[in-house]
Hints:
FAD/NAD(P)-binding domain; Arc Repressor Mutant, subunit A; five-stranded antiparallel beta sheet; 22 strands
Amino acid sequence: MYDVLIVGAGSSGCAAARELSQYKLSVAVVDRDSDVCEGTTKANSAIVHAGFDAVPGTLKARLNVRGSKLMPELSRRLDFAYKNNGAFVLCFDKAQLPDLEELAKRGEANGVEGVKIISGDEARAMEPALTDEVESALYAPTSGIVCPFEMTLAFAENAFENGVQFKLSTCVTGIEKTSFGYTVHTDKGDIDTRLVVNAAGVYADKLHAMVSREPMTVIPRRGEYMLLDKEAGGLVSHTVFQQPTKMGKGILVTPTVHGNLLLGPTAENIDDKENTATTRHGLAEVRAKAGLSVKNIPFNKVITGFAGLRAVGDTHDFIIKECEDAKGFIDCAGIESPGLSSAPAIGEYVREIIAGIIPLEPKPDYKAERKGIVHFAQLTRQEQMELISREPAYGQVVCRCETVTEGEILDAIDRPLGATTLDGVKRRTRAGMGRCQAGFCSPTTIKLLAEKLGIGLLDVKKNGSYEKEADGNA
């Protein structure tokens, strides 16, 4: 019997779990996949938006700005990669300047600091790779970039260390209202809980419909990306947006916290909640539109393409509230962009809702900090030699592209909520994310996983994603 059961181990679910782990509550997170960060969170733009785009007065606006302000301190306390690099929104036509001015007004209304409109020449002085067609730009100095894997894993590991249980590879098949709260039926048995937090991403509407008659529709919106090698990572230092439309913030060009260059995403509403395939026309659109913003993009340095699904709600805002006709069931749905930026604040907001339902008593022994995996390549030469002398496994480089060592991979497997798949190791260490895309390091990583997990080589999986059945269980 739990006080709170969170369905969904993405950025919102794990942020909520971490917030609740500060209190004397029994909390569990359930997810159909074998690892956290397997859904929307694993494939996005990795941007910490400043908060100028959301309509003033909406949850998106409030939580985006709050989440952005929380991010720097959280990255220090929880040890994940974050960089405040600033952003531009480009205007290519003087006739569109009023739209840019409207964005600036929104930013001011939302409490975003330092937002201003500058000329094209001023923008090019700060970002020389911008095209000559840029007439003016909105500059947002508080915008940033983050590693979405590291952030979500940091939330999850910190929650786990503070007593939250994670029930992974566990698919919710139904939810039943009871006298004490809810019985959540899963393919691994029933779970009793007083409260449910529905953070199930693109399946949040399916979960909602199990307990409530209130209408809710979540549309999967596919976004395709191109990722370029680190040789191209210095082309721009800021995140470069185009003016947003009703379908989103358009094709961006941005550095990543790990030194690559990222282009995308497209925006296409689809019916299939599992379709993350890239397409010829989608990648062609990324290529064409990115070239409008930034000149001389070296497309011969593209190392991979990928697609993610955004969970677009039918209210055009985040849906975070207790259901009127299902008390104790809290939706955390429609978390599209800027969901990643808002995640820390979403966790706080969910906690506030729960505090209005059941009393929350702080834990005196709460651990507020977490230490991540040591990244060998980021150490000084002296630090590397000292580490190798203590742990010889750090002297064995497994992934040459990213200089990831055996010691890092073993840590990724052994640590709380450790990796059990190739993708799990990749998201924790970056082994396999370089230019050869795991062509060199996979055999050794498979061997290490098999040895540590006590399974056969052929039993090691690339990922543990749930295979969709006809009933579309969440």
